[in-house]
Amino acid sequence: MVFSNLVFIFVFLPLVLFFYYIVKDTFKNIILLIASLVFYAWGEPQYVFLMLFSILLNYFFGLGIHRYRNSLKIKKTILILSIVVNIAILGYFKYSGFLIDNLNEIFGTKWSIGELPLPIGISFFTFQSMSYVIDVYRNDAKVQKNIFSLALYVTLFPQLVAGPIVRYNDIEEQIQSRSINLEKFNEGIKRFIIGLSKKVLLANGFASIADTIFGTPTGELSVLTAWMGITAYTLQIYFDFSGYSDMAIGLGKMFGFDFLENFNYPYISKSVSEFWRRWHISLGSWFRDYLYIPLGGNRKGTIITLRNLLIVWTVTGLWHGASWTFMAWGFYYGILISLERFGFLRFVSKLWAPLQHLYVVLIVMVGWVFFRADNFTYSVDYLKTMFGFSGSDLYDNTFILFAHDNWFLFLIGIVFSTPILSKLTKIEIKNTNSAVVFRSLFESATYMIMLILVMIYLVNSTYNPFIYFRF
């Protein structure tokens, strides 16, 4: 089940909210846990047992570390075992096919494990479980002795299948006790509608364009059509994922939780490093705190820092998917961020501000080609077409048709990917009664119109892709 689904919006969510608010506080977590398990089992009922098994394992790993907290050797052994087991589970379902295919390619063998479906959200709930055990080991979080509370942390449906990656120590206290009031609930509804509109009204429109263009052989693309395709995907992935994060944060508020922000207008960045401080913030901070810093971070000299950056970013690429294109995408960013760290950023920072933005946007769009393409060969050929090295025409009828039909969508997408509207809504007006009433009515009408447009789209269209189901 996904949030941008009529069953979720009109059946699942209202029912969960109804039961959540009519029961006593002592039963609210039970309602949320049951709802979260139903939410996950809706699409893949067999894999709910895998998630429960993962929770049980990490529950006992946490207890073991706590029990032997005064014995560094034993608790470190338990920590290493927990990491190995979690990575093994993730690796089996996500990377075993990729590994076997490459071994077959190298050795000319024909090994096979058959078709192995990827459990939805396995990367997210595995990372959350690992962060819990690691935080207990570091004494950054108290051990959770109530297995149902730990299960709620891992399965909490607003952030289960696509993040943000919520750390246990961020919501440890909220699981036990959280404030619920009308103001927060209202804020949650508005945030959910914003995210839903981003996903349905913008991301889906860009997805249709990107899928069509990326489904075309590169030899049949013109230069401008290739640029339109990657521009569409650049906007699609932002509105798809940031929209889902907005919906998750909004849903969290409806149930009294405060999740950390996951996006902060990344396309206005002036450096690649800044882009990754603004994009998928929870994932970037996770790799920083649980991989980069333990490897030594930037504390052990230039060579070690460079090594650590390349390792972290290659693993980041691999986390997104079992493919050489994802690894190339991660390594690509590892090189770029290393270059910026070791001097190139000083040059970039001296450029005219619009050129700094252009530099980042071009770098990111080139990276998205590897992220979107099905294989490495197509990625390289697509880039050749984009930059005019394939002998393709400058434009063709496809470009003209898409530009004519979708120019307003692109305009809206570009504007909404910047904080322009956010800043306009914060402009102070005279605090008169009529002004307050007008602003309140205008805001309510805007959210209602957005919701109506979303409903019209969902009723009349079956096209509702979600990128991050792949991860």
Topology:
Blueprint (H helix, E strand, L loop, with lengths): L5 H17 L2 H17 L6 H20 L4 H36 L14 H17 L8 H9 L12 H9 L5 H33 L8 H32 L17 H7 L2 H15 L6 H19 L3 H25 L4 H20 L3 H11 L10 H20 L3 H6 L7 H28 L11
Q: Quick one: biggest sheet?
A: none
The global form is: globular
Oligomer: single chain
Show unreliable segments: none
Calculate the mean pLDDT score and round it.
90
Give the H and E element order: HHHHHHHHHHHHHHHHHH
Count of beta strands: 0
Radius of gyration: 23 Å
Helix coverage percent of residues? over 70%
- Note the gap between the termini: 15 Å
Number of helices: 18
| Alpha-beta content class | mainly alpha
- Beta fraction: under 5%
What does this structure look like?
The protein is built from 18 helices and no strands. The chain has helices at residues 6-22, 25-41, 48-67, 72-107, 122-138, 147-155, 168-176, 182-214, 223-254, 272-278, 281-295, 302-320, 324-348, 353-372, 376-386, 397-416, 420-425, 433-460. It is globular. It starts with 5 loop residues before the first helix and ends in an 11-residue tail after the last helix.
List keywords for this structure.
471 residues, 18 helices, 72% helix, mainly alpha
Structure summary:
The protein has helices spanning 6-22, 25-41, 48-67, 72-107, 122-138, 147-155, 168-176, 182-214, 223-254, 272-278, 281-295, 302-320, 324-348, 353-372, 376-386, 397-416, 420-425, 433-460. By secondary structure, it is mainly α.
